[in-house]
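Q&A log
Question type: sequence-to-structure
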Amino acid sequence: MKKRALITGVTGQDGYYLSKLLNEKGYEIFGFTDDLGDENAIIRAVEKSRPDEVYNLGAISDLGSATKDPEHTMKINYEAPIKLLNESRKANPNVRFCQASSAEIFSRENPAPQGENAIYGPTNSYGVAKLKAQQEIKRQREEEAVFGCSAIFYNHESPKRGERFVTRKITLTLAKIKLGMVSQLELGNLSAKRDWGFAGDYMEAMWMILQQTKPDDYIISTGIAHSVRDFVTIAAQYLDMTIAWEGEGENEVAKNKSGEIVVKVRPEFYRPLEKHPVIGNNAKARRVLGWKPRTSFEDLVRLMAEKDLEYAKTLK
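Response status: OK
Response body:
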């Protein structure tokens, strides 16, 4: 008999790669596309799917939107996952549940790389809600023997990433510059570093978490950080664009062969560097799950740049 999986956020980047993976593994997949704030929709989805495994990917993931409406963020990113877990337990007491958590739950004072035992200290509404959900799932796991887990994801990207995220902004805007559609890419702090991985690899890790004998929480990351500048430089290379960096801080720019500025810092986007880079320690996932990222940073950037060049051509 096929395993039945319920995926929230199925229409997003992560949902795409997870549903593709589970389909290849022969699952019967149910995708939740309704409003996670609608408790009746959650009840109906669980009653219809009666899942063996639940993957909660649905969330308000944009930090700007989360900050503007913290009450709604708490409802979607904390209350809804717990409602989903509790309803799933009613439908199937043996259900396995995995929450997509985030590195935003940790304090910025944690030295890199951060492990599962890093100090909590979210600095925004998104992180606060994600932390509350993770802690409640852990409580149920420890006190009620629920198979509840959290995948603590660090930044993960792909050609399916929303255009409001900096990585897609970089690859799509550079592609448009190459095609003569726009003239400049405007960014914030070019020296800011992130632990960027490929979303497809991370969804494989999420599936592996629910195949273990015991439930637990895992950091899913590459363990390697690159700067925004690195991302721009490599994307430009794959788009066959020659750029050279000049200046520092808010005055840093990248110029093309003709000396024209193609990348510059926009002052309102600029943020001071964080005390410690946001880098995850994935040792536990490697040791227990046998997981490791398969896609290098360079291959990730290449994939995104090539896909956005194809996409930009359709916009001309």
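Response note: Residues 4-153 form a domain with the Rossmann fold fold (CATH 3.40.50.720).
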